[in-house]
Structure formats: structure tokens, C-alpha cells
Amino acid sequence: MLAIFLGALDQTIVAVSLPAISARFNDVGLLAWVISGYMVAMTVAVPIYGKLGDLYGRRRMILTGISLFTLASIACALAQDMQQLVMARVLQGIGAGGMVSVSQAIIGDFVPPRERGRYQGYFSSMYAVASVAGPVLGGWLTEYLSWRWVFWINLPLGLLALWAIRRALAGMPVQHRQARV
Questions:
Q1: Mutual angle of helices 58-77 and 31-56, in 10-degree steps
Q2: Cα–Cα distance, 51 to 113 (Å, whole number)
Q3: Residue of 12, 113, 133, 162 with fewest CB within 10 Å of its CB?
Q4: pLDDT tens digits for 65-92?
């Protein structure tokens, strides 16, 4: 759930800071790619992570996705121009694709079919909370600190998610399969 919340929060928190980012870099030409690059990369990454999770283990893939997302968040916060920010957002989207797809597959592995509807409700509630908290938090961070903090906030959340998922999935069996893509 933490991984889903992290990905959902990032989508909503960044949108509020776009005017400040545009003003800082004085570049509106690539501004749409700050969001679009993230979404396109995430969309492309979802089935790839799903297949890699089947082949090499879901625990490994979700930890990879969260790690990439968190490291790319640091790159976003440190970006010096719009091109760097867009490239970092693309990497962040690739990581988010792993967080979203593999977390749902993990629920499918652990939760009996009868209980899955309830867990889908939990996932939906993470998106609902993020859609309310993201714009408020993003506006506050941008107004009182800097637009860079909408990315720095992902560092403690990402580290917390890594720690929690490593512990929760420590005994998860890994089924190695013959690679067929």
C-alpha cells in the first residue's frame, strides 16, 4: 500500500508545482513533458515489470522499482534545467511502473480471491488520499520551501517503503522460470 501511495502522491503533488518549475527554468516548451514523460514511462514499464516479476521474483522487482523511483526523485530535485528534469521524471516513471504493477501482483500472490475486492478498495483509498493530500502538500511545499521539495519528500517516503517491503516480503518464495519474452 505504501508503494501505491508513493506513486499516486507523486502524480498529484508535482502538478501543483509546475508553474514554479516553469518560472525557475524559464521554459514552457518542455513543461508538459514533466508530467507526460512520467506517465508514458510508467505505462510502458508496467507490463515489463510484470513479466520480470514473473521471471525473477516480485520482491526483487518491487524493490527495484522503489529504488529507481527514489533515486530519480533525487535527480529531479537536483535538476539544473528542464531537460534534466524531464529525463529524471522519465526514470521516475519507470520506477513507478514497477511499484504499481508489482504491488498488485503481490496482493494476488498473498490474498485469497475472496478477499481481493477488499484490497482493491484499500488501493483505491490510497489514490483518494493522495488526490487530496498531494495538491495541498505540493502547494504548501512550493509556496513555503521550494518546488524541489515536492521531489525531496519522496526520499523519506521511498526509504520507508523500501524498509517496510523488505521486511514484509523477506520470506517470499522466488519461483525462477525459464525466460520467454
A1: 160
A2: 21
A3: 113
A4: 999 999 999 999 999 999 999 999 999 9
Residue 10 confidence (pLDDT): 86
Q: Where does the chain have alpha helices with state H?
A: 2-25, 31-56, 58-77, 82-110, 116-144, 149-152, 154-168
Instruction: Provide the 10 A C-beta neighbour count for residue 122.
Output: 11
> Euclidean distance between the first and final Cα of the chain, in Å?
29
| Total residue count of the chain as it appears in this document | 181
Distance CA 12, CA 143 (A): 16
How many Å is the maximal CA-CA distance in the chain? 53
- How much is the average pLDDT of 90-95? 96
Average pLDDT over residues 141-167: 93
